[in-house]
Specification:
The chain is globular. The protein has eleven helices and twelve strands. The chain folds into two domains: 129 residues, Rossmann fold (3-Layer(aba) Sandwich), CATH 3.40.50.2300; 157 residues, Rossmann fold (3-Layer(aba) Sandwich). It is an alpha/beta fold and 306 residues long. The strands form three sheets. It has a five-stranded parallel sheet with strand order 2-1-3-4-5, sandwiched between helices. The chain has a five-stranded parallel sheet with strand order 7-6-8-11-12, with helices on both faces. A two-stranded antiparallel sheet has the order 9-10.
């Protein structure tokens, strides 16, 4: 695998952008470029592509639509969104439908995009070599998993009650109304999925969520919030690898579907631990929130338990 060149596919409606990207990566990778999302899907069907990098605003096919279809056609391909627009709807769609690995801003920093693509390519090569096709969504299993738990981090008890109503008969559902309570639960119980607000008791908890994912990538994180801070959401994608993002007020049907997808994906990762590499997080340039010694102590306890 060390001698194998990864294949990259760049999709953008601007030819000059594609020329720049091809020049940047052509010596280290096999590079395909296209301005047409439909052509990109045909490339994905006929050959192995390790990394797909797509623009969002394109006339033939929006980036989110391309990423969603690419996930179905080639689930092992690492998917990245490259765009100059902080469009909340597009960002949310890229997470929920495209399950992207990274969000890259235009204009890009050359060193950063090279490092991001290199990381994605290395993981993409490993995914193909270990036959990780089971990452695709499968029908839910009929059996329950009594030891598997979900943790709701929210100071609103109604969120916990809704989650409990949805899956409480099959799985353990815990509630942390404060950050310390939540991490204490994580250190004691077998939590597979975290469903969290971004603010709890007026405290921004995005930094602890990112730190949790950095140390425990096997725990899937869903963010459920009414806040619409695109910068924070991009950080949660790149540095927290959130699995789903859902708005408040809660739409029960959408939440149920997302929880079921998260549980299925967690079970797949239990069977194929190598898939956890897909959730490698980007190191923050600077920490935007403090992590208390208490929280770090809980994180170390979780690591020891695992």
């Amino acid at each position: 695998m060390a001698d194998q060149k990864a294949t990259l596919l760049f999709v953008d409606d601007e030819e000059r952008i594609l020329r720049s990207l091809k020049m940047l990566f052509r010596f280290d990778y096999k590079v395909h470029t296209t301005t047409d999302g439909n052509e990109a899907l045909e490339i994905l069907k006929r050959e192995t592509v390790h990394v797909l990098v797509s623009d969002q605003r394109m006339p033939i096919m929006a980036g989110v639509d391309l990423l969603r279809q690419a996930r179905e056609i080639s689930p092992n391909t690492m998917r990245l969104l490259l765009t100059g627009y902080s469009d909340l709807t597009a960002i949310v769609g890229s997470v929920n439908d495209g399950e992207i690995f990274r969000y890259i801003n235009k204009p890009w920093d050359t060193d950063e995009i090279q490092l991001t693509v290199k990381t994605a390519a290395e993981i993409g090569l490993q995914m193909v070599s270990t036959d990780a096709s089971a990452v695709a969504v499968k029908p839910a299993a009929a059996s329950t998993h009594p030891q598997l738990g979900l943790l709701v981090i929210d100071d609103d008890p109604s969120t916990y009650q809704i989650v409990k109503d949805i899956v409480g008969e099959k799985y353990m559902v815990k509630w942390g109304s404060s950050l310390n309570d939540a991490f204490a639960i994580l250190s004691e119980d077998n939590i597979a999925v975290v469903i969290s607000e971004v603010k709890v008791a007026n405290e921004d908890i995005t930094a602890p969520l990112r730190t949790l994912k950095e140390h425990h990538p096997n725990i899937l994180t869903m963010v459920l919030t009414s806040f619409q801070d695109t910068r924070a959401l991009i950080e949660l994608i790149n540095q927290g690898q959130i699995y789903r993002f859902l708005p408040k007020p809660i739409l029960k049907g959408m939440l149920e579907k997302s929880i079921q997808a998260s549980i299925r994906h967690y079970k797949v990762m239990e069977e194929k631990p190598q898939l956890v590499k897909r959730y490698t997080v980007e190191q923050p340039k600077k920490e935007s929130g403090s992590i208390s010694d208490t929280i770090m102590g809980y994180i170390r306890k979780i690591r020891a338990k695992i």
